[in-house]
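idk why but the lab printer keeps eating my pages so im just putting this in chat instead. protein + zinc ion:
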Amino acid sequence: MNLTFSLYRLQTLDTQRQKITKRLAQIEAILNADELVQARMQEKMRVEAELSDKLKQVNQIAADTAEKRLKLELNQVQLFGGKIRNPKDLQDLQAESEALKRVLKKLEDAQFEALMAQEAAQKALTEAETNYQAAIDQKASENSILAGERGTLTDEMSKLNSQREALTQTLPAEIVTQYENLLKIKGGKAVAAIVDDGCEACGVELSPRDIQAVRSANTIIRCKTCGRILYKA
Ligand SMILES: [Zn+2]
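predcted complex ->
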């Protein structure tokens, strides 16, 4: 096999490998990122805390109400029980009875409002849970598609690696080293084909003599402008 053709073939394999490596890194990043799921989880936790807060309020009002009712019952027993006859004491009991009834009315209103707020928080939580689950499902389906693509790319990569291994074994070691060094310093492209009488990589025009030399020689001829190994089909 012609030396420059082998190098061109090697470059083609490496270009494909570079593309796969890049895409695999992208896939890995997407698989690891779950901003939406995280955001929806935070929202769910926030609403959960709010609901728990509202429940506490409702319970507190219920406890206060029970306490005031008990006080009122005792007050009524004393007021109407017939044991207390002193008008001043009866007047005090009457005043306490009215005050307790006012407090109970206020508590009743507060209870109504607290229950409404609890209901709203419960509704918000149901919605937050639905959104969170939707984000998880979306992520799972996205992940499964990406995992499939990753599998395909990994298989393709291993085939390319085998082909590369077989190809480099047919080439002199120092040529492979030269190629690989060039690959590093030339942004992943060490071999440039001659397309329309010009270097495919840097675009410089080549003389017919140069082109003929590249075509016939079984040695490496490099582009005078960009330094890449030239190849002519
Ligand atoms: Zn060039």
